[in-house]
């Protein structure tokens, strides 16, 4: 298939150009040599306004600088003639595969992960298809580079490594003008928006405007892992200031240098944003809330889930991927979810979101009211076990988990009293699953399931090595960030990674291909079960409760098909008629990054 790259050989302001050509014929010289300075560029001062888009030069030079169409040395001889590229490239003609091998060799030469991240981002800015080809073909190696854990460090240093804007920045300065700002984005057919206000980036806290690394990284995965077209993705950072004094004092900080706007003014800005998004892009654009602080995350999800197509990855995505791991682990643990007791360290967005989805899944399978199934799930926060005597002082999202029990102040006391079979960490605090805690868990379980989910790696509640060693090889272990395989007593254990990247790309893609107008909890359950079904006996034999990420495109297609099926069943899909084979339809809709041939 041949396509014509857009935006090339356009000639604007013909009279000006004709004038330039006349100057060239007459040979009118300037002080610096060359022809007459028709546009005043040499004479312009800082006080003199210059229109930057006055001239559009008919040249392949522009094509080489358009990341969507650039192929570098992979332009064929015929394409070099057709698109005025002769002399602008070295004579060698490459293939995409050869370019990929060369770049992977270059990236592997970097020892510092942040340098690899910068190299990948620079590649995305100059050759979009090659960037996604690399990411898809080397997903296990590059996912930790463009996503957690490296993206956390990138956000911390975003001001220093910032070179070229990616996505839209909407600050308090744009209040009352957000619709105009959205119209500044060149693409009109947006299907997925990932938006953050930077207040709770991973386990790193308030990074303000520098949180943009998260929406950019998430949307790269929507394309590479889920198949959503890059042009249909829009990363957005809402900058309302930061309470991080270190950033406020940093001369290179790229955001608003003010304390965070809160309360009525904050929610008015978000209301204007959500209204403008729907007005500009329609009912079916998916808005994914990312890394908002607890108090805003729950409020925004509750406010907009019945009026917009919204999804909170920290609450719902994390819950769905953890539930998938729990369902898959039943093959190793035995019994059903209802037979197990769950103890969480951490009662924020992730913890309560996971707990609620587990309770909902048990309720769905047993027909027991969710109010009852919640009693199998216990949460520990910074003040100890959440119990009914604390209910009056608890935030509203913690109150459903306040069960009857004597107050306990430490995690170790809670493990000894509750005797859970599953221990889940969402605290954002590293090394909180101590040796005493793990040994107490192993004392009451033949196969304890330990999920240390906090990101990045430095914030994990324990390491894979600690989990396997302290349980004498009995543990089934999973984490939020990757850990290397570990050998204990002659047996090789492969830690699972409860990575949201398993769920949100496929979930979002399923919503897009079905034209869904709302996200329903049943879609999250469908996504979890679809992921759990991808775990084979071969994986179980290695202690794995998640499939390898190398199969992620196939996994995402299966998840998308199940989510789309649920959207149609619930009457929430608008893309009609319904495809007869949703899996084949999902696979056929997925973006592929192979180079196109140009006329």
From TrEMBL:
Any GO BP annotation: malate metabolic process
Organism: Lactuca virosa
Name this protein carries in UniProt: Malic enzyme
Gene3D superfamilies: Malic enzyme, N-terminal domain (3.40.50.10380), NAD(P)-binding Rossmann-like Domain (3.40.50.720)
GO cellular component, as recorded: chloroplast
Residues binding a divalent metal cation, per UniProt: 290-291, 314
Cofactor note: Divalent metal cations. Prefers magnesium or manganese.
Co-factor requirement: Mn(2+); Mg(2+)
Pfam families (alphabetical): malic, Malic_M
Domain Malic enzyme NAD-binding: 315-568
């Amino acid at each position: 298939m041949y396509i014509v790259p857009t935006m090339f050989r356009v000639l604007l302001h013909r009279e000006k150009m004709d004038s330039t050509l006349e100057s060239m014929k007459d040979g009118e010289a300037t002080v610096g040599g060359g022809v007459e300075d028709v546009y005043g560029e040499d004479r312009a001062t800082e006080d003199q306004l210059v229109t930057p888009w006055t001239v559009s030069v008919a040249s392949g030079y522009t094509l080489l600088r358009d990341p969507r169409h650039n192929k570098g040395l992979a332009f064929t001889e015929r394409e070099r003639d057709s698109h005025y590229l002769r002399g602008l490239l070295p004579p060698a003609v490459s293939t995409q595969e050869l370019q990929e091998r060369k770049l992977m060799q270059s990236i592997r030469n970097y020892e510092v992960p942040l340098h690899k991240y910068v190299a990948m981002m620079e590649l995305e800015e100059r050759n979009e298809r090659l960037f996604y080809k690399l990411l898809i073909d080397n997903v296990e190696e590059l996912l930790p580079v463009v996503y957690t854990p490296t993206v956390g460090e990138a956000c911390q240093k975003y001001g220093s490594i910032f070179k070229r804007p990616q996505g839209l920045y909407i600050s308090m300065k744009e209040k009352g003008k957000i619709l105009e700002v959205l119209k500044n984005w060149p693409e009109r057919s947006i299907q997925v928006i990932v938006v953050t206000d930077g207040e709770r980036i991973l386990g790193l806290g308030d990074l303000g405007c520098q949180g943009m690394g998260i929406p950019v990284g998430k949307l790269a995965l929507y394309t590479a892992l889920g198949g959503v077209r890059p042009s249909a993705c829009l990363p957005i950072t809402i900058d309302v200031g930061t309470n991080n004094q270190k950033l406020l004092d940093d001369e290179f900080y790229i955001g608003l240098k003010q304390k965070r706007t809160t309360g009525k003014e904050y929610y008015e800005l978000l209301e204007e944003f959500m209204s403008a998004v729907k007005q500009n892009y329609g009912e079916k654009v998916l808005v994914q809330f990312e890394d908002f602080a607890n108090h805003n995350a729950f409020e925004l999800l509750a406010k907009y889930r019945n009026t917009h197509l919204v999804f909170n990855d920290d609450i719902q995505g994390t819950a769905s991927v953890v539930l998938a791991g729990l369902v898959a682990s039943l093959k190793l643990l035995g019994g059903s979810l209802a037979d197990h007791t769950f103890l969480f360290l951490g009662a924020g967005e992730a913890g309560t979101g996971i707990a609620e989805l587990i309770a909902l899944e048990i309720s769905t399978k047993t027909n027991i009211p969710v109010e009852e199934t919640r009693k199998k799930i216990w949460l520990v926060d910074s003040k100890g076990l959440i119990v009914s005597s604390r209910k009056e002082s608890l935030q509203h999202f913690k109150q459903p988990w306040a069960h009857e029990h004597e107050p306990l102040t430490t995690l170790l006391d809670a493990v000894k009293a509750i005797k859970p079979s599953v221990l889940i960490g969402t605290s954002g605090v590293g090394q909180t699953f101590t040796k005493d805690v793990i040994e107490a868990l192993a004392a009451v379980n033949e196969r304890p399931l330990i999920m240390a989910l906090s990101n990045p790696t430095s914030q994990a509640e324990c390491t894979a090595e600690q989990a396997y060693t302290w349980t004498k090889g009995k543990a089934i272990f999973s984490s939020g960030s990757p850990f290397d395989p570990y050998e204990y007593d002659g047996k090789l254990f492969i830690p699972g990674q409860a990575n949201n990247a398993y769920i949100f790309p496929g979930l979002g893609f399923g919503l897009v291909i079905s034209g869904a107008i709302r996200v329903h909890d049943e879609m999250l359950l469908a996504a979890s079960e679809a992921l759990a079904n991808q775990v084979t006996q071969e994986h179980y034999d290695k202690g794995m409760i998640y499939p390898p990420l190398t199969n992620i495109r196939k996994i995402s297609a299966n998840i998308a098909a199940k989510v789309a099926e649920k959207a149609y069943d619930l009457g929430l899909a608008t893309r009609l008629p319904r495809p007869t084979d949703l899996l084949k339809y999902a696979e056929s809709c997925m973006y592929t990054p192979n180079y196109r041939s140009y006329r």
